[in-house]
Amino acid sequence: MAKQITSSVEALEAEAQKILEQAKTRASEILLQAKEEAKRILSSQLPLDDTRIECDKIVSRARAEADKMIKDSEQKAAEITAIADRKVQEIRERVVNIVRGKG
């Protein structure tokens, strides 16, 4: 009976050792996969950098377009002011002429 118990214990120890080795192998595989996934994720940051660069380009173009629109608006405002000043001068001259009787 002692031999049977010893054999059973040895068989259990052998089975436990086998399971432990399988677990170690699986853990190594998982770690390797994790490292590969980390490398893939890190290398995929380049497209993120490309996206950031593209975003910066879009913002830069938008700013340039906005600056151009502001400049155009300022120029139009200056033209309108000049036209208004001319009209005010014309009206002044008419009023002066009417007052002088040259109207």
Low-confidence stretches: none
Instruction: Tell me the structural class.
Output: mainly alpha
Count every beta strand, where a strand is a DSSP E run of 2 or more residues. 0
CA-atom Rg in angstroms: 43 Å
Oligomer: single chain
Mean pLDDT: 84
Strand portion? under 5%
Helix content: over 70%
The coarse silhouette is: rod-shaped
Describe the sheet with the most strands.
Answer: none
Q: State the end-to-end distance.
A: 140 Å
With helices defined by DSSP (H or I, 4 residues minimum), what is the helix count? Answer: 2
Order of helices and strands: HH
Features:
0% strand, rod-shaped, mainly alpha, 103 residues
Protein architecture, described:
With 103 residues, the protein is an all-alpha fold. Helix content is 95%, strand content 0%. It contains two helices and no strands. The protein has helices at residues 2-43, 45-100. The longest helix is centred in the C-terminal third of the chain and has 56 residues, at 45-100. The N and C termini lie far apart (140 Å). The model has no long low-confidence stretch (mean pLDDT 84).
Topology readout:
Blueprint: H1 2-43, H2 45-100
Summarize the model shown.
The radius of gyration is 43 Å and the shape is rod-shaped.
